[in-house]
């Protein structure tokens, strides 16, 4: 299940540690990723801790019409952001099956997280 | 070395703003070039023109302004994060039909792409999160 | 080498666990702001698996009256030392 990052170096790694709706960390972190990609930067995403909740399928808008983040996640491919990773520990804590994640993300554990960070010139945590 | 700072915390709510200003001064004191401070998320409130803290407390907005005046440090505020939170300069106020504006000069509203450029073009980007 | 900063108290936030998962051999972890509560002797078990150095910011310890209570294994640096650490590191990652 675990997999090493593929070794391609990237410009920016955005680490997303919060789920949707409760705070705007996830949304504003994703905005940073999209803007970087739109400017031609190579961007990877790592979902950790509560951030794994961003990948649970079936999310919606909030009761006042607050936008969710799943429409943004669905656009990642259009922006050539196709390197998505998820922390295996966060996945286990949430009890979510890796094959249910939407969009798909590669599960990484242990030293692979540090290796992924070392491959990117800039690491931003949200 | 060329440095940039990313500040995500509102003044007087979280120590992040004080830490970032203290770190900025220390970077300059060690002879480095501090290119810019980028204000994102709640950090945009650091640009609030009307901030009026009691006189016996550090004035963060003035602290940032002094950094710009004395060392040429650019003060860049994410426009999307700022407008949502009521941090609006004169141009944006006119565009949105609002009276008055809330951004202290020399803070400037700019795009998020600028954060990515700073992060990749400077030798170091240090985030003060909240 | 990456310099990691942590500004949340381990008594209040589990973000320190994310930082620990992301640390590589030879990385350093600098406790700042409320993170300096992690420098107290009673918290040292948290860092037993730390693959690198544990540091704490002097000014943030001092402001909280904790300078004399810092665990012996924790290296204390002032803000000038903080900048020096960022010079030595390849990059800096913040956990908050």
What would the keywords be for this entry?
heterotrimer; A: 126 residues; alpha/beta; Hypothetical Protein Ychn, Chain: A; 5-stranded parallel sheet; 4 helices; globular; disordered N terminus; C: 96 residues; 25% helix
Q: What report would you give on this structure?
A:
The complex is a heterotrimer of chains A (126), B (130) and C (96). Chain A is of the alpha/beta class and 126 residues long. Chain A has four helices and five strands. Chain B has a five-stranded parallel sheet with strand order 4-3-2-1-5, with helices on both faces. Chain B is globular. In chain B, strand 1, helix 1 and strand 2 form a beta-alpha-beta unit. The relative contact order of chain B is 0.26. Chain B has a single domain (2-128), classed as Hypothetical Protein Ychn, Chain: A (3-Layer(aba) Sandwich). Chain B is an alpha/beta fold and 130 residues long. Chain C has a single domain, classed as Hypothetical Protein Ychn, Chain: A, CATH 3.40.1260.10. Chain C is 25% helix and 23% strand. Chain C has helices at 15-22, 58-63, 79-88, and strands spanning 2-6, 28-31, 53-57, 75-77, 91-95. Chain C has a five-stranded parallel sheet. The model of chain C has no long low-confidence stretch (mean pLDDT 97). Chains in contact: A-B, A-C, B-C. The interface between A and B is medium-sized, with 16 and 16 residues.
Gross geometry of chain A: globular
**Unreliable parts of chain A:** 1-7
* CATH fold category name of chain A: Hypothetical Protein Ychn, Chain: A
The proportion of strand residues of chain A reads 15-25%
Q: At CATH's second level, what is the architecture of chain B? A: 3-Layer(aba) Sandwich
What structural category characterises the helix and strand content of chain B?
A: alpha/beta
**End-to-end C-alpha gap of chain B:** 26 Å
Backbone CA Rg of chain A: 14 Å
Q: Spell out the CATH superfamily of chain A.
A: DsrEFH-like
Topology order of chain A in helix (H) and strand (E) letters: EHEHEHEHE
Mean pLDDT of chain A: 93
CATH class of chain B: Alpha Beta
